[in-house]
Design goal:
With 165 residues, the chain is an alpha+beta fold. Helix content is 36%, strand content 30%. The chain contains four helices and seven strands, in the order E-H-H-E-E-E-H-E-H-E-E. The chain has a seven-stranded mixed sheet with strand order 1-2-3-4-5-7-6, with helices on both faces. A hairpin with a 2-residue loop joins strand 6 and strand 7. Helix 1 crosses helix 2. It is globular, with a radius of gyration of 15 Å.
């Protein structure tokens, strides 16, 4: 029996992107605090907002970004994943957001999404996949290691990871 489940991607709408961005800015600020990177909530919120604006300067219309809603085999939304061309390494597709909805976790969607996004990026001509993960994230970090990602840099409780496609 395979550990993988069927997942599908559909393009995210601009409204979905904007709604998700508001929630993710708050959520990322909380992760910054947990990592020890930012001590004060207001500072973490400002840092999170600034990073989001730098990552997506034109919002939904930022070039070389791919925004997907992850769906299961019943075409139900189970999460979201974004990736873009790395700002320095043009052959690297860099995952900027990856969330499986809380109620859908531990069903194989994360692992299957990593496989699907790698196929999607390879099909667009990328040679590597990269991402950033908080080292205190005891669910995602081990999953990325198991999927073949390796740490290329560590900064303030974060790991920048890459793998060959």
């Amino acid at each position: 029996m395979s550990d993988f489940v069927d997942v599908y991607f559909r393009n995210m709408t601009e409204k979905e992107f904007n709604d998700f961005a508001k929630e993710e800015i708050r959520s990322y600020a909380e992760e910054l605090i947990k990592s020890g990177y930012r001590k004060l909530k207001i500072t973490a919120l400002k840092a999170s907002r600034k990073e989001y604006e730098e990552t997506f300067p034109q919002g939904y219309n930022t070039p070389e970004n791919y925004f997907y809603v992850i769906q299961n085999d019943k075409k139900e939304d189970v999460g979201k994943i974004f990736y873009q061309t790395h700002y320095e390494k043009k052959d690297v597709a860099f995952i900027t957001e990856f969330v499986i909805d809380e109620k859908q976790r531990n069903k194989g969607y994360g692992k299957s999404t990593l496989k699907k996004v790698a196929e999607d990026a390879r099909g667009k001509g990328y040679k590597k996949m990269g991402l950033n993960v908080f080292l205190h994230n005891n669910i995602s970090y081990p999953m990325y290691l198991k999927d073949g990602y390796e740490i290329v840099e560590e900064i303030d409780g974060n790991a920048i990871m890459e793998k060959d496609l």
